[in-house]
Each structure stands twice: as structure tokens, then as C-alpha cells.
Structure to design on (280 residues):
């Protein structure tokens, strides 16, 4: 099943480590949740994250095998592509809607170094999940052709949408390589595996980010559709949503929740592309 492979790439499924991470992350969030000038905000102490990365690195290396190392290496190109295009889509959409903040910060490019967060990448390697460098926006800069919350929702949806587009493109490449006989030796087999992993990673990242919990894109999309009182309640309780997000993610519940969706998206794209190549 596609989602099972993807879940191994984007999620952690080790309960002993998970319990430690729930405690550590919850401590980070509770200690970092502050009131400044009447606004609730988060300020993460990176020292805690360094400790978590070290724990994850030891756990990862202690169970390292040749197959795991090969799989990790083959997923890196797909991870960089997915993260880079995801964040670029956010930046470009915000720019098109009138906010020049991403342009000023140099985010309107496809250079992975502009979009990859080193700690997020390290977490991805050692913990099985990670994040890119968030695109900063200033909603006040959006043009007034639409309400601000709608513009924010569109910017948020642009990232996952880009991942689904990439998954479709790489799915076409995957079947084209087989259809037209490009897989002829070990090197081309590895390239085919990279393309396949890129499809899975993009689908997984796209679906995962649509979960309506902060800090994921889905939460900002949901905010647009909530009534005024609902938005206020959601913003007041963000700390608890963050903790809930961490718990459902590292305990494996997130995988069970979105797994069937990932599998359905993969199956749909697979059917469409196979039809294009008359494989079905």
C-alpha cells in the first residue's frame, strides 16, 4: 500500500522514543507560549530541539542497515524537491496576491538552500519527519480584491497543491521510463526508485499538510471557513492544538488517519497515468 511506504518516510513509529518526544515537545511548547503586547505567540528554544535531534540520531544509527541507508539516500532528492517546491508555491502565491515579503526575503526561487531548514532536515533524516523554512507573509500587504482570510487560505493551499502537481508529473515520468525502455541497468533502476519515492513523498507531504491543526497549512485553510467566534476560539487554544498535533503525529495516529487518504490519492493518480499510457 502506498501510504505505508510514505508513512515510513514522513512519520515516526517508535513508541518508546515517541513518549520521550511527547514530553520534550510539550515542554518546549508550554515553556515557549508567551503573551506579548496582547498577542499569543510561540518562541521555541532550539536547545531542546538539538537534544531531540541527538536522541533521534543515536536511535537511527543504532538500527542502521544497508537497506535503510540506501532507502534514505534515494529519498533525499524527493524530499528536497517536495520541500523546495512546496515553500516556493507559498512564496509565489503570496507575491501574486500583492505581498512582496517573500520576494524581499529571497524566497522566489527554487534553490533548496533558500527553503530547507537545517534543523527540519536533520529531524527528517533522524526522526522520520521534518519541515521546510516557513514562508513569512504580511497579510496587510495583500491586495484588496479579496478578504484577507481568503488570501491566506489560498497561500496556504498553494503548497499542498504544488505537491499534488509534482506527484502527478513524477508519476508520468515513472511510467514513461518503463513504457519506453529507459530502465536497462542498475543506475536506471535507482533513478526509477528515486522517481517513485518522489511521487510518494509529494503525496504524503501534500495530504499531511492539509490536516487542520497548527502549524500545518490545513489550519489556516480551516480558519477562513470558521465564523468569527470560531476563529477567536481557535486562536486562543492554539497551544493545545500544537500539543495535540505532536501527540497524534508521533504516536502513529496521524498515519492511520491520513493513510487511507494518501492511498486513495496515489491510487487515483496511478489510474489516470496508467490510462494515459494505455497500461490498464
Amino acid at each position: 500500500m502506498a501510504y505505508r511506504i510514505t508513512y515510513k518516510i514522513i512519520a515516526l513509529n517508535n513508541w518508546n522514543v515517541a513518549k520521550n518526544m511527547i514530553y520534550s515537545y510539550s515542554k518546549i511548547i508550554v515553556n515557549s507560549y508567551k503573551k506579548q503586547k496582547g498577542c499569543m505567540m510561540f518562541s521555541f528554544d532550539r536547545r531542546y530541539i538539538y537534544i531531540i535531534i541527538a536522541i533521534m540520531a543515536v536511535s537511527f544509527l543504532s538500527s542502521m542497515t544497508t537497506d535503510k541507508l540506501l532507502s534514505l539516500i534515494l529519498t533525499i532528492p524527493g524530499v528536497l524537491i517536495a520541500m523546495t517546491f512546496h515553500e516556493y508555491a507559498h512564496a509565489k502565491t503570496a507575491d501574486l496576491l500583492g505581498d512582496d515579503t517573500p520576494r524581499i526575503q529571497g524566497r522566489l526561487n527554487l534553490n533548496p538552500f533558500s527553503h530547507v531548514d537545517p534543523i527540519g532536515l536533520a529531524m527528517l533524516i533522524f526522526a522520520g519527519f521534518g519541515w521546510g523554512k516557513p514562508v513569512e507573509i504580511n497579510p496587510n500587504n495583500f491586495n484588496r480584491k479579496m478578504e484577507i482570510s481568503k488570501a491566506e487560505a489560498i497561500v496556504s493551499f498553494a503548497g499542498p497543491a504544488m505537491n499534488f502537481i509534482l506527484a502527478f508529473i513524477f508519476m508520468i515520468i515513472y511510467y514513461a521510463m518503463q513504457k519506453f525502455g529507459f530502465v536497462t541497468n542498475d543506475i536506471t533502476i535507482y533513478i526509477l526508485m528515486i522517481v517513485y519515492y518522489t511521487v510518494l513523498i509529494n503525496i504524503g507531504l501534500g495530504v499531511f499538510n492539509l490536516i487542520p491543526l497548527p502549524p500545518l497549512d490545513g489550519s489556516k485553510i480551516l480558519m477562513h471557513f470558521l465564523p468569527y467566534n470560531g476563529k477567536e476560539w481557535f486562536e486562543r487554544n492554539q497551544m493545545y492544538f500544537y500539543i495535540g498535533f505532536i501527540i497524534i503525529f508521533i504516536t502513529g495516529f496521524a498515519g492511520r488517519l491520513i493513510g487511507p487518504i494518501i492511498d486513495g490519492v496515489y491510487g487515483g493518480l496511478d489510474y489516470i497515468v496508467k490510462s494515459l499510457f494505455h497500461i490498464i
Remarks:
- Residues 1-43 have pLDDT under 50 and may be disordered.
